[in-house]
Amino acid sequence: MKNREVEIRFRLDVSDRARMLTALTTKGWTPVASSQTDVYFCSASFVDEGRTKECPYVVRVRTQNGSGKVAYKSFTGDGSWVEIESSVGDPLAMQDILAHIGQRAYLTICKNRMSGRIGDIEINVDDIDGLGTFVEMELLSPDVEAARATLCVHAKDLGLHTEHIVTEGYVQLIEATLRP
């Protein structure tokens, strides 16, 4: 079985953010800061009909510190993502290509990210425009349940309580703020 992207995330307030950065640094986390703009696409028919939440996939074009990546992501129903990602030389050209093949941009998320690893776990502290601050932990594994359990152990070790896991992704959280 192929590796899946398994994530857990927690919303942080200002004091939690400072405490989290200290705890992560103590454990050897050496972050790299970046500014990211993510533009999300799905089939134009879903966007035109206002049914983006029903689209079975998203395509994300990320611009980060002047470079770009494109990613296809589809939710598997077991709490993990199938994700295929590749670098692109010109993110704006990639957006044009997607538009020409029937994809439509429907959401843009801007964030400042501090990203690092502790072992196999990628840990991001994200400050997201209009949404707040989050810590996101990610592990690639073919065994979704084992990966989630590993992430929960590490979260607990950082003082995070698993009953406070935010189950929605950033796209869903932003969409919820846009509802009338």
What does this 3D model show about the protein?
The chain has an 8-stranded antiparallel barrel, surrounded by 4 helices. The chain is 28% helix and 44% strand. A hairpin with a 2-residue loop joins strand 6 and strand 7. It is α+β, with helices and mostly antiparallel strands. It has 5 helices and 8 strands; from the N terminus they run E-H-E-H-E-E-E-H-E-E-E-H-H. The N and C termini lie far apart (42 Å). It is globular. The longest helix is centred in the C-terminal third of the chain and has 14 residues.
Question: What's the layout of helices and strands?
Answer:
Elements: E1 4-12, H1 14-26, E2 32-43, H2 44-48, E3 58-64, E4 67-75, E5 80-88, H3 91-100, E6 103-118, E7 121-128, E8 132-141, H4 144-157, H5 170-178
Antiparallel strand pairs: 1-5, 1-8, 2-3, 2-6, 3-4, 4-5, 6-7, 7-8
> Class by helix and strand content?
alpha+beta
Number of beta strands: 8
Number of helices: 5
Which percent range describes the beta-strand content? 35-45%
How much is the average pLDDT?
Answer: 91
- Strands ordered across the widest β-sheet: 1-5-4-3-2-6-7-8
Q: What assembly state would you assign to the polypeptide chains in this entry?
A: single chain
The separation of the N and C termini measures 42 Å
Q: Give the biggest beta sheet.
A: 8 strands, antiparallel, barrel
Q: What's the shape? A: globular
Order of helices and strands: EHEHEEEHEEEHH
Low-confidence stretches: none
Radius of gyration: 17 Å
| Helix fraction by DSSP (H/I, runs of at least 4) | 25-40%
